From TrEMBL:
Residues 7-234 form the ABC transporter domain. It comes from the Bacteria. This is ABC transporter. SMART domains: AAA (SM00382). Keywords: ATP-binding, Nucleotide-binding, Transport. Residues 305-328 are annotated as: Disordered. PANTHER family: ABC TRANSPORTER, ATP-BINDING PROTEIN. It comes from Mangrovactinospora gilvigrisea. One of its GO terms (molecular function) is ATP binding.
Length: 328
């Protein structure tokens, strides 16, 4: 068994009656990694996260969590914390009392100084003495994260933790997750927000109808993706258009529109062809002012993979798609 992996799942299946929620899922989560789970509604994300938290057991396959086989008892494996479907809180208790109650349940001091530290980390110090009943969704999510922090988890599992968060709340959560990962905690979270996942995660898994469509580094999606569309702003738009039209592997799209008051060019290319274009622009003294995907690589991959009809999953098509499941 690979001790560097916080989670190793092989051929995991999980059914609810006739519904196949997970259908042969493989997943490797390295220690200290922030891993994003993405997929359309009903893809199986919550089900998978629930298995990691010990809330359910797989019907088939092998699941190892923090180096130990999981799946025989319905209990959170030691060192694992988190929540699916929102954190469980006592509504009639204040934020601080909620954490004190959790500390007491674990046989710790109710006045554990880490309670105030955790509240500060998630940005809830000012409402620490307010009852959880009146908390917004974003505040409840942050209190749930503070509760998970108190256990000092080695694997943190969060189902859509950014739900309901305002920009400040999101910043707190992002900082906490990045800090935990730096200290070696593995974080796995689901989200429908591609920008959040791209900001936070080093690796992602794209699930659709219970199957893994891609699993691996975000950079792999960008580099091995099918051609993406990029918006390009240059110091001399006419020259840029001419150079792009002549560049190998680059297609200039005619529907280019003004972008933030400037004349933008939209090109379609693979990353190596784009490298060639930027070098060609520099050779002709045309300055590149902005070059960014019109749709992010993750979003493009997500759309392409999840819109593919079931029949197109055969070996031939998946080779063409460039999105084969990572075969680590
Ligand atoms: N307890 C359950 N009983 C019956 N069916 C369930 C149960 N939990 C999940 N399912 C079904 O399993 C499938 C996967 O659901 P799951 O909640 O894991 O998806 P998800 O990717 O988290 O979706 P969403 O993005 O909507 O949260 C769905 O078809 C869902 O209806």
């Amino acid at each position: 068994m690979d001790t560097q992996l916080a989670v190793r799942a092989r051929e995991i299946t999980k059914c609810f009656g006739d519904v196949v929620a997970l259908d042969g899922v493989d997943l490797d989560l390295a220690q200290g990694q922030v891993h994003g789970l993405v997929g359309p509604n009903g893809a199986g994300k919550t089900t998978l996260l629930g298995l990691l938290l010990g809330l359910a057991v797989p019907d088939g396959g092998r699941l190892e969590v923090l180096g130990r086989p999981a799946g025989r008892v319905l209990a959170a494996p030691a060192g694992v914390a988190g929540f699916v479907d929102g954190p469980g809180l006592y509504p009639s208790l204040t934020a601080r009392q909620n954490l004190a109650a959790l500390a007491a349940l674990r046989g710790r001091d109710r006045r554990d100084p880490r309670i105030d530290e955790a509240l500060a980390e998630v940005g809830l110090t000012e409402v620490a003495d307010d009852k959880a009943r009146g908390f917004s969704l974003g505040m409840r999510q942050r209190l749930g994260l503070a509760a998970a922090l108190l256990t000092g988890p080695r694997l943190l599992v969060l189902d859509e933790p950014a739900n309901g968060l305002d920009p400040a709340g999101k910043q707190h959560v992002h900082r906490v997750l990045a800090r935990l990962a730096e200290e070696g905690t593995t974080v796995v979270l689901s989200s429908h927000r591609m920008d959040d996942l791209e900001a936070l995660c080093s690796e992602v898994t794209i699930l659709a109808t219970g199957r893994v469509r891609f699993s691996g580094p975000l950079g792999k999606l960008a580099a091995e993706n099918r051609e993406l569309e990029y918006r390009l702003l240059a110091s001399d738009p006419a020259a840029a258009r001419r150079i792009a039209a002549a560049a190998e592997g680059v297609r200039v799209l005619e529907e280019a529109a003004p972008w933030r008051g400037a004349e933008a060019l939209v090109v379609r290319a693979l990353v190596p062809a784009l490298d060639g274009l930027t070098a060609a622009l520099a050779r002709e003294d045309v300055a590149l002012r902005e070059l960014a995907p019109v749709v992010s690589p993750l979003e493009a991959a997500f759309l392409a993979l999840t819109e593919e009809p079931e029949e197109s999953e055969g070996p031939e098509e998946s080779e063409d798609s460039g999105y084969e499941e990572d075969d680590r």
